[in-house]
Design brief:
The protein is mainly alpha-helical. It is 56% helix and 10% strand. The protein is globular and about 30 Å long.
Length: 86
């Protein structure tokens, strides 16, 4: 699922929430997984972790289980800086 698709899904889920139907997910809380980011960008996990090691990737949150999440706002801000650098 691309970011645009997840935004549409989130808008639909928000409408459901207002009707009393809750659908908890990372999308709803505004956080993305590494796999979701890699799929959206069309890059491998290795590339993502190389960017992270060089300090050029998006700002991440490390969970207690070691998994990473990226706030959607941080990801979109990071994308904008990449576009400006291009």
């Amino acid at each position: 699922m691309t970011i645009a698709q997840s935004r549409r899904a989130a808008r639909g889920s928000q409408a459901k929430e207002s009707q009393g139907v809750a659908t908890p997910s990372y999308h709803m809380r505004g956080k993305l997984t590494v796999d979701e980011i890699c799929e959206d960008l069309g890059v491998s996990r290795r590339t993502f972790y190389e960017w992270r090691a060089h300090g050029t990737g998006p700002k991440c949150i490390k969970l207690p289980n070691g998994h990473l999440r990226v706030r959607r706002a941080d990801y979109e801000r990071w994308l904008e800086t990449r576009e400006a650098a291009a």
